[in-house]
Amino acid sequence: MLSVAGPRTVDILPEAKRQRLSASDSSSSDEASDDEGRRVVTRDLRRALEAAFMTSRPLHEQKLPLREGIVALRSPEGLSMLTEASAGSKRLFCSMAPFFEGQETLGCGTCSLAVGLNTMRSMATGERAQLTTQVELREELRKAVKPEHRYFSSTLQELVRVGSTRASSAGCRLRAVRSIEGTCSDFRADAVRSIEEGGCVLVNFSRQVLGYKDSPYAGHVSPIAAYHEATDSFLMMDVAIESYPCCWVPSELLFRGMLSMDQPRDARSAAVPRGYLLLSPDTDTGSWPLCVECEADE
């Protein structure tokens, strides 16, 4: 079981990462934030944070600024929010972090799906090897939808189609939900229930609504790794690692971003509503008893 009692001071960044950060004068503020954040990080989250931070960019290297109200995970406030999250959130974050990766061009959907499926299989079986990759999913989807271009986006329904071929191996079920058919309360309830019962959620939203106004792309998909009740925010593990950090997004803002239409990929496709994709454990109890990554620290 996940142990959250007895906070300990840990070094969440390995030496190689600290050296890379200190090589740039502009990184001094990031290092100060990291130092302060270490004081509130418990040992059980150390490995997961190291994995996530090694994949994502330091804040000073992010290409686009965050909208007011969105909190970067890699900040004292962001780290505190993670330590204050529920056991289910910590379990999901610990399980997802080793599989977190950056997307290929226009590949946020298949990248997020790969992260989700690998996470679910890990929580179900304890297996730490990848079940699938974003490249495998992309090429399988290419055969199914026959896009006009080399790089192409994908809808939630298409992700369900390609993900269902691996759902049984991942020990999960997939269900796409169109946000226009519900409310923010519905989304919050679905997402929190999924997290607490051993599942995970992929969100499909408008970048512009979330404040990514300088982004050349209209839509985006990323997995959710935790929920912070006090601020009513979800931890979004943004797979666009070159541009955005992992961050806490208020649920109302995130839902507004999902109340939009996914633009046609090409002349053969149509605009469809955005929403979210639930990956639920395919078990009688609907939950997994442990966090594979964190169990080793007990």
Structure description:
This protein is an alpha+beta fold and 298 residues long. It has a single domain, classed as Phytochelatin synthase, N-terminal domain (Cathepsin B, Chain A). Helix content is 39%, strand content 15%. It is built from 12 helices and 9 strands. The protein has helices at residues 15-22, 28-38, 46-55, 76-84, 87-96, 108-125, 134-145, 156-163, 167-170, 184-196, 251-258, 292-295, and strands at 71-72, 172-178, 200-206, 219-228, 233-236, 247-250, 261-262, 272-273, 275-281. The strands form 2 sheets. A 7-stranded antiparallel β-sheet has the order 1-6-5-4-3-9-2, with helices on both faces. Strands 7-8 form a two-stranded antiparallel sheet. Helix 6 packs across helix 7 and helix 7 packs across helix 8 (156-163). The longest helix is centred in the middle third of the chain and has 18 residues, at 108-125. The protein is globular. The N and C termini lie close together (8 Å). Residues 1-27 and 284-298 have low confidence and may be disordered.
Percent in strands? 15-25%
The CATH architecture assignment turns out to be Alpha-Beta Complex
The biggest sheet, with number of strands, parallel, antiparallel or mixed sense and barrel status, is:
7 strands, antiparallel
Count of discrete structural domains = 1
Mean pLDDT rating: 79
Q: Which overall shape is indicated by the principal axes computed on the Cα atoms?
A: globular
The overall strand count is: 9
Give the CATH topology.
Answer: Cathepsin B, Chain A
What is the helix/strand order?
Answer: HHHEHHHHHHEHEEEEHEEEH
State the name of the first-level CATH class: Alpha Beta
Helix content: 25-40%
CA-to-CA gap between the ends?
A: 8 Å
User: How large is the radius of gyration?
Assistant: 18 Å
Q: Give the strand order, joined by hyphens, for the main sheet.
A: 1-6-5-4-3-9-2
The low-confidence parts are: 1-27, 284-298
The CATH superfamily name is Phytochelatin synthase, N-terminal domain
Tally of individual helices: 12
Overall SS class: alpha+beta
